[in-house]
Amino acid sequence: MEEPLASRRVLTPALLLAPMILLLVLFLIVPTFGLLRASFLSESHLLDGSGFSLKQYIRFFSDSYYSSVLFETFVDGIIVSLICLGIGFPTGYSLARLSPPARRWRIIIVIMPLTLSLVVIVFGWLIILGRNGVINALLLSSGIASSPKQLLFSRPAVITVLVQQFLPFMILSVMSVVTQIDPVLEHAAANLRANRFATFRKVVIPLALPGIFAGFNLVFVLSISAFITPRLIGGNRVAMLGSLIYERIMAELNWPSGAAMAFILLVSGLGVTATLNALAASRLVRKGGRYAR
Amino acid sequence: MLALSEGKEDAVSESNDFVVELRSVSKLYGDTAAVADISLKARRGELLCLLGPSGCGKTTTLRMVAGFVEPSSGSIHINNIDMTHQAPYRRDTGMVFQSYALFPHMTVAGNVSFGLENLRWPREKRDKRVDEMLKLVELAHLAQRLPSQLSGGQQQRVALARALAIKPAVLLLDEPFSNLDAQLRVRMREELQEVVRSVNVTTLFVTHDQEEALTMSDRIVVMNAGKVEQIGTPGEIYETPATPFVAKFIGWCSLLKGTVDDAGAFTSTAGLRIMGNWSAGPATVVIRPEQLKLSAGGAPGQGQQARVLHSQYLGGATRVVLDVNGEQLIMQERFPFGRHPQHGDVLGITISTDNLRLIGEA
Amino acid sequence: MIKRRTFLKVAATATAGALAAPYVHAESKKFSGITLRVNGYGGLYDEALKKSVAAPLEERYGLKVQFIAGTTSADFVKLIANRDNPPYDLFMGDSPNMVELTKAGMIEEIRASEVPNVKRILPDFREFGHYGVPFSVASVIPVYNSKYIKPPIASYSDIARPDLVGRAVVMAPATYGSLLTLLGLADENGGSIENVEPAFKIMSAAKTNIVALAQTNVAEIQMFQNEEVYAGIFWDGRAHELRTKGLPIVTVVPPKGVYSVTTYINVVKGNKYPEAAYAYAEQLLSDEGVLGVPRALRYGVTTDVTLPEELRRDLLFNSQGRIALKKKVDWEKLIANRSAWTEELNKIIRS
After folding, report:
1. Beta bridge partners of C171
2. What whole-number distance in Å separates Cα of residue A250 and Cα of residue C74?
3. Per-domain residue ranges for chain A?
4. Which domain holds residue B72?
5. Per the CB < 8 Å rule, is A191 touching B146?
């Protein structure tokens, strides 16, 4: 009697996971390996597919242009993630502290921008940030500026639009973790003479760290792989690796070079998030007095 | 205990040494009053218990003292300072929460040390205090554990140590035993009482368990529907309940409604007469089970005729619900082995009028 | 330049075609039930082709044409990835795409025997031998907003003029528009496809002028419309589109030569209905068909069709003299240089 039951217990999760694994293998793992293979081709054309060469990688790393673009892409990713954290944490926290019915429609508002096509969002921003746009109209009418300012096609503009796009991910990550933190802990902290700031710093933030890091990782990864926003809002003057990859593959049809850049971005992106996560894990447990460290 | 607190009262009322004072405090949620016009004072070193059924406003009252709920009207004073509108962290209270609310990311020592860090105690003094508190609750060996690695009783002791570490003027306990199983509850009750007494801290203690209230408190505040029904020592509350609610809530009893005639005798609405010397008017009589006695072996024909409606064997005694002249009375009595009353049996009983409590209607 | 005899011959053929029409009609719906799939360029472009090519074909032969809008380069990737079961029967592509299409061996040669109207194509407009049927031509030219830019812009190189600081737009690196701009700049400054250094020098000089590098035509239209930019390099048809929106946009014809891209229709190898596909090409090159795109978008024509007055006024290539300005491009070399030029341009703009 026991044996079939035991084996079923092992089988069921495998069966439940099978569709997802199949999907991932077919549409993620296999194409990824295809891309990895392509990155080791020496020709700069998609149709020539044989041989093995490190030429694409050497080209990338021997030209300081690419490494500086990679570096700037990461800096941008970190800036976007930090701004999202700054805006998203209070929002996610306050959402989590609402009753579920009051939370519901506010969450819908948070998620709404994600349902819009990126192109629509980007064109909306073009209108807002344009020379004749809303911001410039405000600047002129309030007398802050005497002539319209060039807001578009700059790094701050790209970062602003990326923040707007990825903010929901931060808000939702923080919210889902904060809902797990018993509000009574904040009362306990207040009772133990911690003011609001100390409560936040010593209790709320440490307990919300998993959500903060999940959100940070999501926003970081989405930002460093963004390509439409830097191209349209940055007017191609703001170089991010994602748009260079897009250009290589879609415009130049230079798959090997594009694939190599994609893998460099993938591996270094994973490296950054793994480092951040390791840092997070090591700081999760707080101790007291001389018992600390 | 009674004598002790009364003695205290004399000394204290003159020096006006109240640690906590609530003056006409109300809390409205919309139109409904969770707490309606409550006034009470806790003396230094006193263990004052807020007792009442769930929803009576006792927890709201405690939370107003801690500062988590702002009163709609009235004022709250701690050590004679008006704290009504002060933030919780500015109030000199230490609270043990119903769920203990230990910080899950800190060790036991970290939890106890938390309040001291906020008070900016120097490191050495802090460590000493943490050791002292952990010794007090006998948890020194678990200082490095995380709360999730502790049993319920241990967690409660950490919560107590944490609240006491900061030497609060008043210790607030919110149903501290409700998350423990019955046996542990009794043991923890004794432990907590011992610890609280040893540090001699003024304590406000919220419970819905009358046994807890009777055994632990110096004085009890019985609350119902947002109002104070009675404030008194456990003895006063039990022996001389001020209202039918208090009588019913504290211990078993039978309540008989009726009137007192000009002769001073009470007649219940169903017609049961009890002789006495009370002042005339409508009234309610409180009859505790121990005030009913079997008359001369309980044979029918002696004293009042009582028909057994049902009986419960409790081991040491039997609780019997009786029909006496159309009124239901509860009696607790030790019957000889093999002579337990059955449904329909008729017994002869007498009602002892010594200490019989009659509550006149206002 | 069409020789008179050729013209007569072509005219005769056209007349014969017209006369033969009733017979064709008599064959009644010989392609009914067939649907041809074409990669679309989207928007007005596809609408124009539907009206001037697809609709008449459906009426005459019962042939249906489905336009699947997308980006040409992505559609091309889709095509070569599904060699055995091509997702399109006809493939529309510009001159640079033709290099890859012919290399990939995915398209049929088309001769007058299959598509008689091929004979009407102007000389030099068929850049790839017997491959592809050109039906439209788009030119990359300097444009400017005459409301703000007073001394007229006269050449590609004027993009570096100091009065345009912070006000100019060029097309994004790696786009054909960008590559042709480089050729134009090189040509005007003593360079060539072999030596584009002079072009990069102009780009470096224009760096402070260039506010943005437009990723798409729509983006560049927006920039002109919102007056983010006053001058730039754009497509001739798009400049006309801006004028129809009420902007005083002037199209400049650079005197040293104009760089253009020709749009071709190709019959995909291995498609199921070659006859129907040829019929589409034939209709596309007919007077009705070839005027469809210019009527909607004012891109140039590739045949000897007589231009109606309004088109003669609006089109860039509206005379023998203008057509003579069209520069020949070695597309294969252009494609080979694309990566290097794009990289160089990216570096110039960013540094």
Report:
1. C214
2. 6
3. 56-101+166-283
4. 2-248
5. no
